[in-house]
Write a structure and sequence with these properties.
Blueprint (H helix, E strand, L loop, with lengths): L1 H12 L9 H13 L9 E2 L2 H8 L11 H11 L2 E6 L4 E5 L2 H9 L6 E2 L2 H4 L3 H8 L3 E4 L11 E9 L6 E10 L7 H33 L8 E5 L4 E3 L2 H6 L9 E2 L13 E7 L2 E11 L4 E7 L34 E2 L6 E2 L2 H13 L6 E4 L6 H11 L7 E5 L8 H6 E2 L12 E2 L1 H4 L4 E5 L6 H13 L1 E2 L8 E2 L3 E6 L3 H6 L5 H7 L2 E4 L9 H17 L7 H10 L5 H14 L9 H14 L11 H8 L6 H15 L4 H8 L3 H12 L1
Parallel strand pairs: 16-23, 16-24, 17-20, 20-23
Antiparallel strand pairs: 1-4, 2-3, 2-7, 5-6, 6-7, 8-9, 8-13, 10-11, 11-12, 12-13, 14-15, 18-19, 21-22
Helix pairs in contact: 8-10, 10-11, 17-19, 18-20, 20-21, 22-23, 23-24
GO molecular function: ATP binding; sequence-specific DNA binding
Organism: Methylacidiphilum caldifontis
Protein name: Sigma-54-dependent Fis family transcriptional regulator
């Protein structure tokens, strides 16, 4: 460290000798000297309110709010500050231990302060933004002497699609403590990039839907539809030509209200469109109390408006296909296993999986047993850059405790009495360059969890009996049906491993919350088993479907598949498969588990009676089911229809039939 101080003194005194420091640091020092930065004291620029609005009022920062608790937790665990800045170096988020927050105020590392090289000299924030890559700056490597007692590490956050510099994430601590490895900052920045992409794609799907519904209100005035980043989602070619811009250039709104709650329904403000500043009427578009985009109405004087062209014509052809989320009304079906569904929650999970496939961050699949976690893991693998490499699935609960280490990491030859001379490769080495899926990760013995954590952090394994570590390049996807956070609080699961695995969590909804996906999946499984058995029985779908929707499916998709297969296999001789055939199978399932019950059933005796095909006439059952749904919904037809899994018009038609 003394050598660096000497090099810094020589450089700042201008003795003409080239400093022996890292190249990134040298280039930053040279820029600082060119800017005329004070070598004694950094001076972050505190922006006036109007300029702060222009630089900081980017609604994309609200995307990060769900991540703030995790970032704060990491700041506390690593005992450091975590800050997020804009591409200009303007601070938008700071958090950490209380003593560091006091120090942040002392250093003026506060929201709205500009920490670019022009004002604060060589810091990780300024250097990372200038070099557009991760940078660490330690002690006297800082250009300003006032920062010589800290270390800081920054990593870049890119914009979705364009991959341009968008923000920087920085971790800052006392020089008295060991600096955080740069890989930690890179991991956090990758996490934010993924979250940004996920939320942005979902927002755009909502904006398109909103626009299609509302577009009839804008028949005469020329207008733009933009997302919260300012990306143009819709406008006419005439507007682009008039303002000499392209869909890739962002639209900047000046002086917009800062608070969502104070946001007027429509306000007038200047916008920067291409190289032109023009006054326009702006309507914020909100979803869940967050501004996700704007509809901008341009002045009537725009030449394209008087041309008679109907500007309500839709043209999304220039938007990247990556940015368009599948409609929740469209079936999503891929070639991996049985990923079939159109419900909002399920489509959201698929979109998250697509984003996860674009990086190598650990993924944690959460959900009840039978929701399809391994199918999703394979989907992520096949959509990733590792798709041509090995996918290896391991059930952590199925490996005997004594064999976990040798199974995962292998052993050297001759380690055990009677073991092979060649030894054996562990699962991590077998999956090298590919993906390893650790199912039921919550069952992994506590003493093994530390070893797995080291693999995730160091990317190397120690086979039993090995003298040296072996580097591995494996993407880890874990899955559990347990609450790992709760287990970690009870000391049954390592907190540090939970934080490392929980970087990209994806929740898979239970089948009972997926609405008409039950019908889609059941039909798919029926076709699958019918093709295998070369038997296509006629099915009374009008009778079968209400029964499907009235069952709670505690075993989720796995149970649904099993029931579909059993229904066909047990009724090969029937001329028509009816609801009573399905009820018979569900009756057996109800006896196997206490959790499965119809919405109107209060106890097991009623369940057996309701599911007994000898006592049940289906038409009467159907009427009782509808009456029960109406009672539960308090007479609300929409809610009752949702409970039954049918359209409201179907419910009205059945009620009319029963009353006639």
């Amino acid at each position: 460290m003394n050598d660096i101080i000497q090099e810094w003194e020589n450089f700042t005194l201008g003795n003409g000798v080239k400093p022996r420091v890292r190249n990134d640091i040298l280039k930053s020092w040279e820029r600082c000297k060119k800017y005329g930065v004070d070598v004694e004291k950094h001076s972050p620029l505190l922006l006036p309110s109007q300029e702060e609005n222009l630089n900081l009022d980017i609604d994309s920062f609200s995307f990060l709010q769900p991540l703030f608790p995790l970032l704060r937790m990491q700041a506390l665990d690593f005992d450091c500050l975590i800050a997020i800045t804009s591409s200009e170096g303007v601070v938008s988020f700071v958090d950490g231990p209380e003593r560091f927050l006091e120090k942040a105020n002392f250093y003026k590392l506060v929201i709205g302060a500009n920490w670019s090289e022009k004002y604060c000299g060589c810091t990780a924030i300024g250097a990372a933004i200038e070099e557009k890559k991760p940078v660490s700056v330690i002690g006297p490597e800082h250009y300003c002497a006032s920062l010589h007692d800290i270390w800081c590490t920054s990593a870049i956050i890119h914009k979705p699609e364009s991959k341009e510099l968008f923000m920087a994430l920085t971790m800052i601590g006392d020089l008295a403590h060991k600096p955080i490895p740069i890989s930690v900052a890179i991991t956090n920045s990758s996490l934010i990039e993924s979250k940004l992409a996920t939320v942005l794609y979902a927002d755009r799907a909502y904006l398109y839907s909103w626009f299609i519904e509302k577009k009839g209100l804008y028949k005469t005035s020329p207008f733009l539809l933009i997302d919260s980043l300012g990306t143009i989602l819709h406008c006419t070619k005439e507007i682009l030509a008039e303002f000499q811009t392209t869909p890739l250039e962002l639209v900047v709104i000046r002086n917009r209200p800062r608070s969502v709650f104070n946001q007027p329904k429509v306000f007038e403000s200047d916008i920067v469109l291409g190289k032109t500043v023009i006054t326009a009427l702006i309507e914020p578009i909100l979803n869940q109390n967050r501004i996700i985009g704007y509809l901008i109405e341009l002045p009537h004087s725009f030449s394209g408006a008087s041309s008679g062209r109907n500007v309500k014509t839709l043209d999304f052809s220039y938007i990247s296909s990556k940015s368009q989320k599948p409609s929740t009304e469209t079936q999503v079906s891929v070639s991996v296993g049985s990923i079939i569904g159109k419900s909002t929650a399920f489509v959201a999970a698929i979109e998250e999986a697509k984003v996860a496939a674009q990086n190598d961050l650990p993924v944690l699949l959460l959900g009840e047993t039978g929701t399809g976690k391994e199918v999703f893991a394979k989907f992520i693998h096949q959509k990733s850059r590792r798709s041509k490499e090995t996918f290896l699935a391991i059930n952590c609960a199925a490996i005997p405790k004594e064999l976990v280490v040798s199974e995962l990491f292998g052993f050297e030859g001759g380690t055990f009495t009677g073991s092979s001379k060649e030894g054996r490769k562990g699962k991590f080495l077998l999956a090298n360059y590919g993906t390893i899926f650790l199912d039921e990760i919550g069952e992994l013995p506590l003493e093994i969890q530390g070893t797995l954590l080291r693999v995730l952090e160091e990317f190397e394994i120690f086979p039993i009996g090995a003298k040296n570590p072996i580097p591995v390049d494996v993407r880890v996807i874990a899955a559990t049906n347990k609450d790992l956070n709760l287990l970690s609080q009870k000391g049954l699961f390592r907190k540090d491993l939970f934080y490392r695995l929980n970087i990209f969590p994806i929740y898979l909804p239970p089948l009972r919350d997926r609405g008409k996906d039950i019908e889609l999946l059941f039909m798919y499984f029926v076709e699958q088993i019918s093709e295998k058995l070369q038997f296509s029985p006629p099915i009374d779908w009008d009778g079968i479907l209400p029964v499907l929707y009235s069952y709670s499916w505690p075993g989720n998709v796995r149970e649904l598949k099993n029931v579909a297969f059993r229904l066909i296999a047990k009724n090969l001789q029937n001329k028509l498969i009816k609801s009573t055939d399905l009820l018979s199978i569900l009756n057996s399932a109800a006896n196997e588990t206490q959790e499965s019950r119809l919405p109107h059933v209060q106890n097991q005796n009623e369940m057996k009676l309701s599911l007994d095909p000898n006592l049940l006439h289906y038409k009467k059952y159907k009427k009782e089911l509808i009456v029960s749904a109406l009672e539960k919904s308090g007479g609300n037809m929409s809610v009752a229809a949702k409970l039954l899994g049918v359209h409201r018009s179907t419910l009205y038609r059945n009620l009319k039939k029963f009353s006639s």
